[in-house]
Each structure stands twice: as C-alpha cells, then as structure tokens.
C-alpha cells in the first residue's frame, strides 16, 4: 500500500485504459478488462485468454450487482460468441474471487485455484460475524489500538463475506509447477507467498507474458499483513523469498498486474520491492529503540490519516515487519499485564 515509482509502464495515458464494461486487446486472444472497486484502490485488472472452445477468465471482480452488470456487457460484446469455460482465481481476496461462484454457475465453467486460497476463501466466507469480530477485537486490542478504533472494528462484522457472492463448493487444484494449455500455449503455475499464502501467478514463456496478480504490482507494494487468524506469522519472509524466486522469469516479460497498468522491467521492480521492505525493516527497528506497541509503530510507518479499512491494512503491515524482526532475533515480543503486545530491541 506504499507508493513507489512506476517501472516502465507499457500504458500510461488514461485514454489507453479499458473503460468499465469493455475489453482491450493486449495481444491476439488476450484481453484486458478493468472492474471498479469500492476501495481507495479503485479498480482491478482481469485477463481473458482465448481458446478454441471458449474463454478462460483470470480473476473476477468483487461480488456486487454492478460488477455482474459489467460482466454481462463484456459477455455480449467481447467474447465473439464463445462461452466462458474456465475461471481462475489468483487468490482469495474478494476483488479476485468475489464472483467465482456466480461466473462458474452462469457459464457452467470449471473453477481453478490453489488449495490454500480456495480453503481460505471458503472458511472466511462461512465464518460467523460474532466469531470474526471476537477474534479481531482480541488481536487489535493486543496491538494497542484505542477503544474508538476498536468500536469501528466491531462494526465491520464479517467484512470478507460482504465482498463475495458464495464461492464454488468444488474446484480444480492448481499447484506450483503445474501447466495449463490455453490457446495452444503452456501457462505455468507459479505460487507465491506473503500477500496471501498460496497466490497463483501464471507465466507463458512462449508469449513472454507473466500474469502477476497482486504478487508484483507496478506502483504500490502489495499489502503484506499479519492477520488475527495467525498473530505470530512472518508473511514478509514468504514475500521476500517469492520475490527472489520470480527472478527466474525473463526480465523482458510483459507483466500483467492486478492493479495499475501492464509493464516491463520485472527485475528492477523485484529489486525495488525488496529494497522498500528492507528500508521499512530498518525504520521499524529504529522505531523500537524504545519499547513500542504495534499501534505506535503503525503511526510512525503510516504518518497520515487512515480510514478504518486502511487502518486494518496498516496495522497488519506494521506487525508483519515487527514479527519478521522478532523471528530473526532482532526484537523481543512481550505481552504486558493489560494484554498489550510490546516489541523491544533484543
Ligand atoms: Zn489481494
């Protein structure tokens, strides 16, 4: 969620973006659709891959009536009379998987995802608001948020379930190293961690195209957060390791990210994301010169007003850096008598 400079965007002019409800051709049989989002991050990119039998859709948009309407326009005007045969979700976040159930039912299409992402989405969408709020409040209280912020958190209920229509009850599993043949080309599955546990990216060496999802974004760093379900997790370690592995993808690949615009210069982008988190780790360690709570470090790292949605991501991101330093032995976790978590220098 941090702003970083763009790396060689292929398209920059607003006029070059596909309008909502339309598709833009990136290459033969490869279409780009943008769906609006009700967040500060106001759109998601979706990719349509053509095969003889029909279309494969990568990611879906959030589960809303507005997104369904826009999909119907695309179906009517951009599929050349072919059906949708396959829906792939890169990961479980609502903007990516929100309409997977609706799309697969609408077209009787196959659904593909990694096991962890499908399970996570299913689990969260079925969680009761009471259980989710109770777990969240304990987590954010431990992080040192004040009562006013906790009251806003309690209002969120099950925010995940609100962003998805029901998720598919069966699926096809995608694993690291798998290949899908689409339009006569092999698309290799590369799974990554950090943003979510088993995020699916797709690489087509023949076409020189890398569908990155949220794993690599051109302008912002994807959110790397610790969540209430696993308070001592170290997702930053997973993320940095994934960035290293992605160097195996040729630097001249066309990268198709889920937000902003397609770009080239993958390796420079991997370097910039790595350097960004290394700087953030230095900043976090400096902030803990005095013992600090997660809320205090959040205020130093994100020195700007945050709405409740942004606060959730900011707290999670600050804790990701704190936990990473604790896992490496640079910081010590300590819970005080009031149940608040403190980090101090080892
Ligand atoms: Zn995401």
From TrEMBL:
Signal peptide: none annotated. SMART domains: Lactamase_B. It holds the Pfam family Lactamase_B. Residues 43-259 form the Metallo-beta-lactamase domain. InterPro entries: B_lactamase-like_C (IPR048933), Metallo-B-lactamas (IPR001279), RibonucZ/Hydroxyglut_hydro (IPR036866), Sec-metab_biosynth-thioest (IPR050662), WH-like_DNA-bd_sf (IPR036388). PANTHER family: ENDORIBONUCLEASE LACTB2, METALLO-BETA-LACTAMASE SUPERFAMILY POTEIN. This is Metallo-beta-lactamase domain-containing protein. The lineage of its organism: Bacteria, Pseudomonadati, Pseudomonadota, Alphaproteobacteria, Rhodospirillales.
């Amino acid at each position: 969620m941090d702003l970083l400079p763009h790396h060689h965007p292929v398209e920059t002019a607003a006029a070059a973006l596909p309008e909502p409800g339309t598709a833009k051709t990136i290459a033969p049989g490869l279409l780009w659709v943008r769906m609006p989002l009700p967040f500060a991050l106001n759109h998601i990119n979706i990719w349509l891959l053509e095969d003889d039998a029909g279309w494969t859709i990568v990611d879906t948009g959030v589960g809303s009536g507005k997104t369904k309407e826009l999909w119907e326009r695309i179906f009517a005007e951009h599929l050349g009379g072919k059906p949708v045969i396959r829906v792939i979700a890169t990961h479980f976040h609502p903007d990516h998987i929100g309409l997977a159930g609706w799309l697969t039912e609408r077209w009787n299409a196959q659904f593909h995802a990694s096991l962890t992402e499908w399970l996570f989405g299913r689990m969260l969408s079925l969680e009761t608001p009471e259980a989710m709020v109770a777990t969240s409040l304990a987590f954010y209280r431990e992080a040192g948020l004040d009562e006013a912020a906790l009251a806003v958190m309690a209002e969120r209920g099950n925010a995940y379930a609100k962003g998805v229509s029901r998720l598919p009850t069966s699926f096809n599993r995608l694993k690291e190293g798998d290949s899908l043949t689409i339009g006569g080309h092999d698309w290799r599955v590369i799974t990554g961690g950090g943003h979510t546990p088993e995020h699916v990216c797709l690489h087509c060496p023949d076409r020189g195209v890398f569908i990155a999802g949220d794993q690599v974004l051109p302008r912002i760093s994807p959110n790397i957060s610790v969540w209430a379900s696993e308070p001592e997790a170290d997702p930053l370690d997973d993320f940095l390791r994934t960035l290293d592995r992605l160097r195996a993808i040729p630097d001249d690949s066309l990268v198709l990210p889920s937000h902003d615009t397609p770009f080239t210069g993958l390796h420079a982008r991997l370097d910039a994301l790595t350097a960004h988190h290394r700087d953030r780790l230095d900043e976090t360690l400096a902030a803990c010169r005095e013992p600090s709570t997660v809320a205090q470090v959040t205020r130093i790292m994100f020195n700007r007003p945050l709405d409740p949605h942004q606060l959730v991501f900011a707290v999670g991101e600050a804790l990701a850096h704190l936990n990473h330093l604790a896992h490496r032995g640079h910081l010590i976790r300590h819970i005080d008598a009031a149940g608040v978590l403190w980090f101090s220098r080892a």
